[in-house]
Write a structure and sequence with these properties.
By secondary structure, the protein is an alpha/beta fold. The chain has 3 domains: about 15-80, no CATH class; about 80-370, Aldolase class I (TIM Barrel), CATH 3.20.20.70; about 400-465. It is built from 20 helices and 9 strands. The protein has helices at about 10-15, 20-30, 35-45, 55-60, 65-85, 120-135, 155-165, 185-195, 210-215, 225, 230-235, 250-270, 300-310, 325-335, 370-380, 390-395, 400-410, 415-430, 435-445, 455-465, and strands at about 85-95, 140-145, 175-180, 200, 240-245, 275-280, 315-320, 340, 385. One iron/sulfur cluster binds near residues 106 and 109. One iron/sulfur cluster binds next to loops.
């Protein structure tokens, strides 16, 4: 029986209705050369109010080169208007790769007997986080497999407490985002109380039948429980949630429509869309050969997806990891990505000691192996401001308060000075002399771009104080 599509429903199969996605794809295919419709959709997008999954799907289906270029130009403009030239930096921290699930695309799946299983003790975490602080990181995303015995919620909570407590030299982790398996409202409430930033959970695929095949065993097999996780997280008080699909598992047009429907659902039910969307693509790893998944997407399609996400949900941050190469990162940063990881280790305990090859505990192979200093330098050479800002979360600007700041157009008076001040901290405490030189001149040239004079003066004053050794200023 057909399920009714209802973005307000709390049932996965109603807010991600398969029928609605199929109708959307048919509508998009039928209209992919409909100039009049495409023009009207692009005109709507130019108003920066976002697009529905149907409208965005028509643009995704369109193959006309000149129109695609228009989408890219618009995405670039929206990126500039909303995010300026700032790129927020973060690093993943793998706590444990014990996992009871059977996800066929992930080397941590329970049946993989030749991967090294590791779980960080609290002492290991201190060492890892100290190493991350010594690079200059302020924002982490913690990752752990699902395993009620090895990685219970108490372990995650204790680890978060440990991470926030480590103060090494001028270092501090100021925001811990959490990427753990779907859980109960009660556990989400505990995570909220532990002071997490964003709760991130990738859907992997919105296609229920494929989802069930790709997750043959373990609690993650339950499509509805997984898909409804964000609603439980929000019920538990977490108002910043991060969505994502693993591109390559299913047909990308299907995933794209599903992703936007999920965003529309969160907005319809909770009044706040997703805080971030991540766009991982399937990668080679121990026991995983990406060529066995035949829905892989090329770099151009990937860029088009990133541009269209930017156009469709202008207020949602977009994240890209070191799964992608320097060249791909460069392209999609321009089109809309607002957060990137740098110098990531995707193995458990990888920041302190690089792993011997035979002891591989990594979740995927990293394509971008540069140090954080190199990434920061590279971004500045491209004209971007690497930002270590965590201010919103610490000022309580989460969920709808964050969104209203975005929508008021005041973000430039907040993000921009915060980016400059946190970059200054980075330059003082961690950068190589060459990076510092580039950074200092970037800060000087970017100061006049703070719109409000008062804010600019305060920022200048704070920059001087940072020079004198004081830390942690924010707007
Ligand atoms: S994707 Fe997550 S849940 Fe699945 S096997 Fe890997 S770690 Fe476990
Ligand atoms: S001020 Fe808020 S939105 Fe802007 S970069 Fe900082 S944390 Fe992000």
């Amino acid at each position: 029986m057909d399920r009714m599509y209802d973005p307000k429903s709390l049932k996965a199969e109603e807010f991600i209705s398969h029928e609605e996605i199929m109708d959307t794809l048919a509508y998009a295919e039928k209209n992919k050369d409909n100039r009049e419709l495409i023009d009207s959709i692009l005109q709507k997008a130019e108003k920066r109010k976002g697009l529905s999954h149907r409208e965005a799907s028509v643009l995704l289906a369109c193959e006309d080169e000149a129109t695609i270029q228009r989408m890219y130009d618009l995405a670039e403009q929206i990126k500039k208007d909303f995010y300026g030239n700032r790129i927020v930096m973060f690093a993943p921290l793998y706590l444990s790769n014990y996992c009871v699930n059977g996800c066929v695309y992930c080397p941590y799946h329970a049946k993989n007997k030749h991967i090294a299983r590791k779980k960080l003790t609290q002492e290991d975490i201190v060492r890892e986080v100290t190493a991350l602080q010594d690079m200059g990181h302020k924002r982490l995303a913690i990752e752990a497999g699902e395993d009620p015995v090895n990685n219970p919620i108490e372990y995650i909570l204790e680890s978060i407490k440990t991470i926030y407590s480590i103060k090494h030299k001028n270092g501090a982790i100021r925001r811990v985002n959490v990427n753990i398996a779907a859980t109960t409202v009660e556990n989400y409430r505990k995570l909220k109380e532990a002071g997490i930033g964003t709760y991130i959970l990738f859907q992997e695929t919105y296609h229920k039948e494929s989802y069930e095949k790709l997750h043959p065993t373990g609690p993650k097999h339950n499509y509805a429980y997984h898909t409804e996780a964000m609603d439980r997280a929000m019920e538990g008080g977490i108002d910043d949630v991060g969505l994502g699909v693993l591109f390559g598992l299913e047909l990308y047009k299907y995933e794209f429509a599903g992703l936007l429907m999920h965003a529309e659902h969160l907005e319809a039910v909770h009044g706040v869309g997703p805080h971030t969307i991540s766009v991982p693509r399937i990668k080679r790893a121990d026991d995983i050969d990406p060529s066995t998944f035949d829905n892989g997407i090329d770099d151009d399609t990937f860029a088009k997806i990133c541009a269209l996400i930017r156009i469709s949900v202008p207020y949602t941050g977009m994240i890209i990891s070191t799964r992608e190469s320097k060249a791909v990162r460069e392209k999609v940063i321009r089109l809309g990505v607002s957060q990137i990881s740098g110098a990531s280790r995707t193995s458990v305990g990888g920041y302190c000691e690089p792993e011997p090859e035979e002891d591989n505990s990594a979740q995927f192979d990293v394509s971008d192996n540069r140090t954080l200093d190199e990434v920061v330098h590279w971004l500045m050479d491209l004209g971007y401001i690497p930002s270590f800002c965590t201010a919103c979360y610490r000022e309580g600007r989460t969920g709808d308060r964050f969104m209203s700041l975005c929508k008021s157009g005041q973000i430039q008076n907040c993000c921009h000075p915060n980016a400059l001040m946190t970059l200054k901290e980075y330059l003082m405490d961690y950068a190589s002399p060459a990076t510092r030189q580039v950074g200092e001149s970037l800060i000087r040239s970017e100061l006049p771009n703070i719109p409000k004079e008062k804010v600019r003066q305060v920022c200048e004053d704070h920059l001087e104080k940072i020079e004198q050794g004081i830390r942690d200023f924010r707007f």
